[in-house]
Amino acid sequence: MELVQQASKTGFRAEILEKVWHLMRLLEAINRDSFLENRLALKGGTALNLFLFQVPRLSVDIDLNYIGSSDRQVMLQERIQIDSLLEAIFLREGMSILCTPDRHAGGKWRLKYPSALGNFGNIEVDTNFMFRIPLWNTATYNSHAVGGHSASKVRLMNIYEIIGGKVTALFARKAARDLFDVYQLCSLPGLERDKLRLASILYSSSSTVDLRSISLDNLSCNANEIKRLLIPLLKQDQQMNKWTQESNLILDKCKNWFLSHLFPLDKNEVEFLNHFHDQGIINPTFLTDDLDIIEKIHQLPGLKWKLHVNSKYRTEE
Prior knowledge:
alpha+beta
């Protein structure tokens, strides 16, 4: 069986490798659709590990941003067609649909497929309609081959927005997979510090994370989570042993990366966050003098939604 042979050859677990092959087929099918190809862009761990890194780990879900229109009414109209097209693609690719999105900002599709190993596998596809104004241009990429399979011409968010989302995810949930991905960033050359900081500040501000209160001392490796949720995605070799035996060294390297790329926040960055979190004001001139980026920041739905939620909370208090 090809799956078992490739699992032995690559060192990845067969059931995870199979899931990635299905995931790649779904990504290709989505990006072959003439309506979807310019309206959905991949982000998250799959974008990093299968496309931008050299597959240091497998990633088993699909996170997509809608980027079709900044206008909310247009987005709401197009979402109906997008959901219909995605459903057709999933069914055509042999998936059973267990759950569909039902939230305004998007949500998860939960899919099930028959496994060549017996029983069933599952894939989650998350569509987010809140981050629909890209700060920088998206682009199409070909994935790296994984066990002889790959995905071509898949649209990705700009790397700095992917990193901004990943940094935010790490501080929000402290998951082992997010720490792993940040650890890989430590070895990625040529990153533009200003763009990385800008994206991290904006994405975190659209979430529950307040960078003003982040302490790197709180970063940690949960041994049980590493064993359950990270190790199955790694090659069964020395890399797996490294993550079980050298977690403190890995943490130190990540902390040093943050200290050289993001922290401490400078005076203007703190002022932006003070205005945003404490006064409910979006003032992007504290972050950049690029007029195009300034205009986009003013319109970011994620920031507007966070201000709405904060205002409602303050009123209820």
